[in-house]
Amino acid sequence: MNHSTYDVAIVGGSIAGCTAAILYARAGARVALIERHKSPDAYKVLCNHYIQPSAVPLMRELGVTPLIERAGAPRTLPVAWWTRWGWIEPEPEPGGEPLPYGFNVRRETLDPIVRRIALDTEGVDVQLGAKAVDLVSEGGRTVGVRIKQGGEEREIRARLVVGADGRNSSVAEYAGIPTKSVANSRFSYFAYYRGDVLPKSDVSYIWFGQDMAYANPTDGGLTAIACAPGKSHLPAFKADLDGAYTEYLSRLPGGPDLSAGERVSKIIGTTDYPLLQREPTAPGLALVGDAGLCSDPIWGVGVGWAFQSASWLVAATKERLHLGPGEVDRGLAEYRREHRARLRGQQFLIADYAGGRPMNPIERQLFAGAVRDPQTARHLHRYASRFIGVREFLAPRVLARAGLVNARHRIRGAARTSL
Ligand SMILES: Cc1cc2nc3c(=O)[nH]c(=O)nc-3n(C[C@H](O)[C@H](O)[C@H](O)COP(=O)(O)OP(=O)(O)OC[C@H]3O[C@@H](n4cnc5c(N)ncnc54)[C@H](O)[C@@H]3O)c2cc1C
After folding, report:
1. Mean pLDDT of 204-229
2. Fewer CB near the last or first residue (10 Å), C or N of the chain?
C-alpha cells in the first residue's frame, strides 16, 4: 500500500479540524486534513450556531471574524434571559468595559469560511472526499491513518494523529478509547424565520427552566428559533411536530410571534442527544472538539469549544512534533491537563442539569440575584460566555452578594405588602 508522511494527520475538516490544521501549519508543520465530504462548502446541518464570546479572540486570530461579519453574522449582544424571577439583561458597568460578545452565524455560512481558510493555508494538504477507515498502529502507538478516497485505500503516516471527527468519532473507536455517556432529558427542534418575529429584533433570547427555548437573530436576515423541552413533551412532538413546536413557543412569556414572520426552513432537531466524553489523548493521538467532549446543545458551547480545544492541542504540541514520540506524548499530557482544567467542571454542571432536575438553591440564588442586580447579571454573563470556570462562577463572594440582593428584595416586598 502506498503511503505519504506528514507531521500531523487530522481526521475531520469542520470547526475543530480546520482550526488545528491552520494553527499547526502556521507553526511550520506539514498537515494532512482528511474530510469525508467532497465539497469544501459542506456544513453541519444540526446546529443552532450560537458561538460563545470565549471563542472570539481565537476566531479573530484565525481570520474568521471579518469574513463572518462581512457575511452578515450578528453579534450575540444584547442578550435577554427569561427566568421565573424576571428577565436578566446584562449591561456593561457604567463607564466600564463593554461586555464580550459572540456571534450567531449559520453553519452553512461559517463552515465553508473556516474550511477555505484551511485550504488557503500553506502547509495544509486538504483531502476532500477521503474517509478515515482505520488507524495505523505500531507497538501500541498510533502512527497514521488509513483512508479511503475514490475507491482506493492508502495510508497517511504522521508524528501525531488528531481525531476531529465529531461526536461519533470513528478515530476514537479505532483507537479503542471508551465513551462515557450521560443521558439528556431534553430533546430539541429548531427552524428559521424571516420577518419581525421577536419582540426586539437584535436580541438573543433564552427562556430558562426545565423546558427551555431560544431565539437568535442570525445571518441572512433570519432568526433561528429553537425549543428544548423535557422528554415528557416528546409524544406530542412525534404526533404533530409543526403543531407541538408552534404551541410550545406560543406559551413562552414575552416569546416570539411566529405569525409575524414566515418559516423558511423545515423544523429539524434530535430526540435523543446524550452528552459524550472521552479521554482526549492516547499515545500518538489526540481528540479535539466533539470527538473529545460533546456537551448539551442547550448551552451553545460546542462550536466555541471545538475552536478552543484545537488551539489548546496545538499550543501544547507544536514545538514538540520533531523531538520524538516521548516529547509528543509529553505535549499530549499537557493538552489533556488543559482540556480537563478548562472543561471538566463546566461539563459536570451541564451534565447534572441535563438530567432534568430543577435549579438547585445556589442556581436559584444566582439567577434571581441576576434579575435584580446588574453586577450579578454581568457575572452570570461572564460564566455563560465561558470566560470563567466553575470555581470563579460559584465564588463565595458572588453567592453572598446574590443572597444579600435577594434578601433585600424579600424585605422590600414584605414592607410593601404590609403598607
Ligand atoms: C441540535 C443541536 C444544536 C446545537 N447548537 C449549538 C449552538 O448553538 N452553539 C454551539 O456552539 N454548538 C451547538 N451545537 C454543537 C455543535 O454543533 C458541535 O459542538 C460542533 O459542530 C463540533 O464541531 P467539531 O468540529 O468538533 O465536529 P463536527 O462539526 O461534527 O465535524 C466533524 C467533521 O468530521 C468529519 N468526519 C467524521 N467522520 C469522518 C471520517 N471517518 N473521515 C473523515 N471525516 C470524517 C465530518 O464530515 C465533519 O466534517 C449543537 C448541536 C446540536 C445537535
Report:
1. 96
2. C
Tens-place pLDDT, residues 96-131: 999 999 999 999 999 999 999 999 999 999 999 999
Q: Counting atoms of ligand 1 from 1, which one is nearest the CA of 170?
A: 41
The CATH T-level fold of domain 3-49+106-182+274-348 is FAD/NAD(P)-binding domain (3.50.50)
Closest approach atom of ligand 1 to CA 34: 43
Instruction: Determine the longest span between alpha carbons in the chain, in angstroms.
Output: 87
| pLDDT at residue 418, rounded to an integer | 61
CATH of 188-270, one of 3.30.1330.30, 2.30.30.230, 3.20.20.70, 3.30.9.100: 3.30.9.100
Neighbour count for residue 355 (Cβ, 10 Å): 11
Q: Which residue has the higher pLDDT, 91 or 417?
A: 91
Q: Where in the chain is CATH 3.50.50.60?
A: 3-49+106-182+274-348
Burial of 72 (0-12, 13-18, 19+ CB in 10 A): middle
CATH 3.30.9.100 segments of the chain: 188-270
pLDDT band at 4 (very low <50, low <70, confident <90, very high): confident
282 alpha carbon – ligand 1 mean position (Å): 22
pTM, full prediction: 0.97
Within 10 angstroms of residue 4's Cβ, the number of other Cβ atoms is 15
How far is the centre of ligand 1, averaged over its atoms, from the C-alpha of 290 (Å)? Answer: 6
Work out which ligand 1 atom sits closest to the CA atom of 270: 1
Torsion on CA atoms 326, 331, 333, 334, rounded to nearest 10: 150
Smallest CA-to-CA distance from 186 within 213, 211, 216 is with 211
- 302: CA distance to ligand 1 center in Å? 8
φ and ψ of 76, to 5 deg: -85, 0
pLDDT band at 414 (very low <50, low <70, confident <90, very high): confident
Residue pointed to by grid coordinates 501525531: 160
Q: Counting atoms of ligand 1 from 1, which one is nearest the CA of 131?
A: 42
